[in-house]
Amino acid sequence: MAPILLLVVLLMSCSFNHHQLQLVLANNPFDQDFSYMKSVHNINGEEEIGSSNYNNNYYDYIIIGGGTAGCPLAATLSENYSVLVLERGNAPQSHPTVFTLAGFFSDLQKQDDGTTPFQSFTSKDGVGNRRGRVLGGSSMINGGFYSRADDEFFAKSGVEWEMDLVEKAYEWVEESVVSTHPRLDVWQSSMREALLEAGVGPDNGFSLNHKVGTKTSGSLFDQFGTRHGAVQLLNRANLENLRVVVQATVDRIIFDSTTTKPYSSSKPSAIGVKYSDSKGKSHKAFLRRKGEIILSAGAIGSPQLLLLSGIGPQSQHPNVGKFMADNPMNIINILLPNSSMEPSITKVVGINDNYFIEPVIFQPQLNMTSGSLAEKIPGPLSIGSLWLANSTDVKVTPNVRFNYFDNPIDLSRCVMGMRKIGEMLETKAMNQFKHNGELLFSGPSLPNNNSNNWEWESFCRTTVGTFYHYHGGCVVGKVVDGDFNVMGIKSVRVVDGSTFNISPGTNPQATLMMLGRYIGLKMLGERSRE
């Protein structure tokens, strides 16, 4: 049996015995360390967890969501404490395409059939979007671009950061999963030159830091096109203390009934979670003394779970699900004359205070190859909200509206960025992509009248898409405090992008992984001082 197929067959079984686990580790067609699989379980209707005997079902920490922030958080806390991670998706080995660059392009073309490593949803704005549904989260399905947060993110976050610890947390992530020697293909190299010719300077060379100008940054894809996502950070865990259950969908948080009665003077106190496996069988897991439940289910999942657990507008938490935002993406696609060009992912970015410009992905097709230039605005300032579509079923994606360009500053920034892309199209670096002296476009081209603001604003509104960098819903200072504790609730934290009030830098995943490590270290420090 082919190695990839063998992995899929084994990962779809209900659980792993020692022999099966050895096969998974031995039949590894990727440059990956699958040691973390020793802690991964798929119970599928078994009584292994959540039986009537709770003696072995208590944990110091229960993390809801094994994603971009949840994996480094779990790895860190497991150094000294028992950790249960509940991930609604499957192990990444059941989706072999997530490990390769070719597979990434393939997954972009797929429709969500309920088994894909992503879940599709459409906001009330009419813009299609995706959520990670695999161990490792969105770091296993995105374009891999890795760049640290900007100074404004830290200044406006509402958190008193220990910047030395932030630096150490970033470095911990980077030494495990980030490729820092990117090779620039023709498209990325040419767009780098176009950015500089168009005045997006200075030339900052290679840097993982957020710097105004043009730079090359890191990637989760290595030089061989193999992805190294957040799931690999689980290899840094104490695997004896870590238990990861996949295809485990948390339905709600369980609270101590004595703290939720109307006459109680105590804060509501979380004691466990109720969740379902892929067969629909219900299970429970509980906290040990001084334990905590940590929501790392993302900007859609975390506010949804708080609402389903009774924490929201009807309680003392009116801001759960509020202050949702998504950085709009506006893009132009250029038909390329050379169909033999290799696939390209973002490795270069142009950074301005008002916009970011990225030469984004494309894959050569038989009949047509196109390269794309996309603009992202920082922030954004426009905000929306999330609310439940079903008051009892966590599997029903909540409603969300982002209100793209509701704030006129966002719209003016989009116009500035798209005009800069227009300047890039006039540079010498673009000459090689012309057909008989002209650039040809797949889809809308930029407005012809450069002086007509209305045309440019209309272009921004009608071509709006997403970078999948949505955030908010459990924002610091609104729902959680500066230590990411849910205010007014005992033993519940939120550690993911739902706590952000602006998107960090050009891409949030670096900071999400850093956040998991950072908060884990802070929590270990808190426990050591008790």
TrEMBL record:
UniProt entry tagged with the keyword Glycoprotein: yes
Cofactor: FAD
Keyword line: Disulfide bond, FAD, Flavoprotein, Glycoprotein, Lyase, Signal
Domain Glucose-methanol-choline oxidoreductase N-terminal as annotated: residue spans: 132-155, 298-312
Class of this enzyme: lyase
Any one GO molecular-function label of the UniProt entry: oxidoreductase activity, acting on CH-OH group of donors
Catalytic activity: (R)-mandelonitrile = benzaldehyde + hydrogen cyanide
Coiled coil: none
EC number of this enzyme: 4.1.2.10
Signal peptide: 1-26
Chain positions recorded as FAD binding sites: 87-88, 134, 250, 497, 508-509
Organism domain of life: Eukaryota
Disulfide bonds: 414-460
Subunit: Monomer.
Similarity annotation: Belongs to the GMC oxidoreductase family.
Name by which UniProt lists this protein: (R)-mandelonitrile lyase
Species, as recorded: Cannabis sativa (Hemp)
